[in-house]
Design brief:
Elements: H1 5-13, H2 15-22, E1 27-31, E2 34-39, H3 42-51, H4 53-60, E3 64-69
Parallel strand pairs: 2-3
Antiparallel strand pairs: 1-2
Helix pairs in contact: 1-2, 1-4
């Protein structure tokens, strides 16, 4: 059975980091090798960039990830 992306991210990050980093993301857009993530705040963006980029890249199969904040 193929895992959905959410399950792959949870497996890569572990439950605590998944909740801290992924569950609060406002939006994720993927197009080809690019991924745009809308974080809830500058602090959240910093945490995603510091702790989540490798797992996100692996789960989505992307090589270019940009994290922005809403507003």
């Amino acid at each position: 059975r193929q895992m959905c992306i959410r399950d792959r991210l949870r497996e890569e990050l572990g439950d605590a980091d998944f909740e801290r980093l992924i569950s609060r993301i406002h939006n994720i857009n993927v197009a080809g090798e690019r991924c745009l993530i809308v974080a809830e705040s500058e602090l959240h963006r910093t945490f995603i960039e510091r702790d989540g980029i490798p797992a996100i890249a692996k789960a989505f199969g992307v090589s270019n990830i940009r994290v922005v904040t809403q507003g």
